[in-house]
Batch of 4 targets.
Target 1
Amino acid sequence: MDKQAQTAFDKMQKREHSLRVLRDQMGLGRITREVFREESLKVIERFRLSDDEQRAYDLHSKVQEQRKRK
């Protein structure tokens, strides 16, 4: 896996973890739905993939899918 693809995976993992934490906090009543929406938008923006990272991730996924089919 090349460096761009690894960076994309790392960002995606961090984004999913941060969103999971926010969902848990909302579920426990520690934050309101409005705060959840605001914070989740910030998280999504913070961990947005660059064009190069998105291309590297798509290519990696495509190659893995082709390997799986063989």
Target 2
Amino acid sequence: MTRQIVTIPANFLRQLSYNWEIDWREQSLGDFNDGVTNTMFGGFPRWVGAPSIHLDRETIGQWRAIKATAQGRYGIYRVRMADPASFVRTATGATSETVCTGQKTADGNTFSNGFGTEYAPIAIASGAYAAGDETIRIDTTGANGIAPHVGQIMSHDDWPFVVTWTRDRGSNVWELGVQMPLRAAIADGDVIQLRGVGRFQATESGMGSIGYGAGMLTTASLSFIEVSRR
């Protein structure tokens, strides 16, 4: 059974409250008699998120359509994990207009709907890495040589990870510590999304339900849990 993948459009992500965390799946087994805590780590870590989307007259109907396409917890939401505290996407050279409407073609044209191709700031993997690795190198030359930040959420093939430390290796190549450890192998030259992308399902069927008044302004509270692809 193939589950529908629904990509949340970038314009929704410009007005989020941001909340992305790693759930390490630990389980408390209580305390020993000497007061030492006993904790079991038995599950695979996963990302969880509880962002809020602010909607207006133009986006209320779009969000209703996205929810209907996802069909509750059946569909998979492909979400750009925006976090402006650790990564400002316009620092790679894109203007806010470009981010909103997409990149035009080389001759300055857009598609018939007025939009261009999606702008997604990326780096390139410098070297090959195996699942389970906690250190990688990336080349940010194509992203205006931007320096990665500690705490930044990146991803490879929609597997998100957070940068825990950085080291400048010269010529726009950066060595990064990453957590959680890589969950899939990375080949030399693979694309690394500088703004992480992940695949999630709603934690409950009615997630993101909205109501609004005459002003047609509302907020949808979301609750996501990462989808296993094992």
Target 3
Amino acid sequence: MSMSPRFHPADGRPRYVGPATVVFPDGLVVPVRVSLVLRFDPSRTDNRESDRGSTWAGSITLDDEAGDVDLFDAAPGILRMPDGRESEFMATGGPRTSGCSGLGPAPFVDQGGKSA
């Protein structure tokens, strides 16, 4: 039985941990903290085929815990990075902390596949 590499920061995958904003379908914009990882890297041979449709994933946590916002309502939402890059995602839970699955290019990775 083949063991796959562990999913942790030392696995060499591009990551981003820090501030961002979520844009909800109704236009509401809220500040969040995110922890994201690139799931599919075309330059590697150990990718799972199932990662092709969702190139990045991670977690999102609302900055304002007292607000009346449910991350699950961002379905789909836009994740906007501090530098303005953005990509669509689906929240996988809520209300204050949610997993997320990217629906396009990772907004935290440059064209060369490196974390920005």
Target 4
Amino acid sequence: MTSSSMNMMGRITFYEERNFQGRSYECMSDCADMSSYLSRCHSCRVERGCFMVYDRTNYMGNQYFMRRGEYADYMSMMGMSDCIRSCRMIPMHRGSFRMRMYERDNFQGQMHELTDDCDNIMDRYRMSNFMSCNVMDGHWLMYEQPSYRGRMMYMRPGEYRNFTNMGSSNMRFMSMRRISDSSIQYNTIAQERNFQGRSYECMSDCADMSSYLSRCHSCRVERGCFMVYDRTNYMGNQYFMRRGEYADYMSMMGMSDCIRSCRMIPMHRGSFRMRMYERDNFQGQMHELTDDCDNIMDRYRMSNFMSCNVMDGHWLMYEQPSYRGRMMYMRPGEYRNFTNMGSSNMRFMSMRRISDSFY
């Protein structure tokens, strides 16, 4: 095998104990039963490529996506009830992506063809679920909740006539994304400043960081954009983070406490549209925005607004003109009262779109 072909392959090393201790097994391909090599495996290091790991043999049970990085104790990181039992290497795919999803088993009912990521099939196609699919090109991750959250399932090219046979009888798929060298967003959050101490790699929303780290004082956004919060459940002060290193964000951003929760911001390449209202419950003066606004007083003669309806795209709202001061992230949805979002003392004076130029 040539060195160039070796570099295209993935490589993952499993360890019996946490923190990369005990016997180990290096894997560069699929493995249907880890017990053939290790009696147990509680930590791993992905040195190259991407893998799907499973908590049952023969690629069954709960699935977890792993890319390059160190997972010193993935059972507590991912909420796994048992250790890894099998793993599958995900080949790198640089061509086109194409998948057809069907409303019912055996390719029956409503059909839609996808060639890109979809963060919510209900919003895009008015489908509450789909029961079979044909993956023609590329490798995909399917998620049980919108915005790439919840349990996941890996789909490689092939026909999937009934998901029940794959051990997913109680799963509904609400979003899906391509597995490419640029499609997966992730950041790494560390316990100590300067990226020291234990770390947790995050590729989706996390409502309570304490499940993984007792504290978190630095982070590195390696791809994508995230909103981080100084309280659990996406509450409290919010801070926008794009690709870069934040060695001590508490002093950089004036945070009174460390990160407690974080939310991934999906990339949006379509149109942007939002209606803002002078009073609660969409009452009073209304204005519709389709682009950035650096001062709502200058443009609309409004000193504030109290509710809004975000129809398209993802937005950042700021309490001062020219995109300054405290901020709030708004994804598509109806916001009838900002008080319920922990912003009772905030006034919004400017807003901007989170477009692909941020990524």
